[in-house]
Amino acid sequence: MEVRWAELVRGTERPIGIGVSGAMRCTIRVSGKVTGAILKKGPRVEIVAEAFCAILLRSWGLNVPDSYLLEIEGQLAFASADATYPNLSQRVGLNLIPEGTPEYEAVVRQACHLICNLPSAPLAAVADEAIDNRDRNFGNVLWDGSTEAWIDHAMSLGNGAAIMDDANKLCVMATHVGDSERFSRSALAAWMLVDRSNPGSAGAAIKAIADLDVPVKDICSKLSTMGNRILDRFPAANDLLI
Which of 45, 53, 46 minimizes the C-alpha distance to 21? Predict the structure, then answer.
């Protein structure tokens, strides 16, 4: 595991046109080669979370675009390789439908069903639970019709705790479409295969820019009780009778 550094090619930044994070498309230079990327600036803690989570989730087998750290005008920034395909919200055209309409709800259900049936979604739910990612919305999953990629982890490691409800949104989506039993079983199976040494390795990889010993210990603690944590995200049988 390692952090890769890149250099911004000045003047190539342009607004991405979606989302609220201010992300921009740009060109970066990595080891002398140029490539397209999505650039994110912001508070250092969010950049660190992006870098750490990208390393950790990739080590657990999730498809996360290649990621890089940059220094721009003395500030730490994060970039991920431009996957060139849309997020799930764009893919199903959710932004084209007025909220609150029956059509909107139908597309939301379609999107929930689709995301919960992605092959790596149960593992992503385990990862989100471990890193305290409360921001797994349709815009944070890329999908080209066959391949998914998991992005945007700035609000992990407690960064979203003050502004977001404590929720594992993939579990919420599975519940919304009546897929709790299958999805929870799949998530538990994915948890059993997770390498519990990887959080420490990911933390060591970015030790030069941030000390994440406390978050790493928290993640490892969560992994030891992950089975119960995942099950608690779903309604119990008695809850369904109320």
Answer: 46
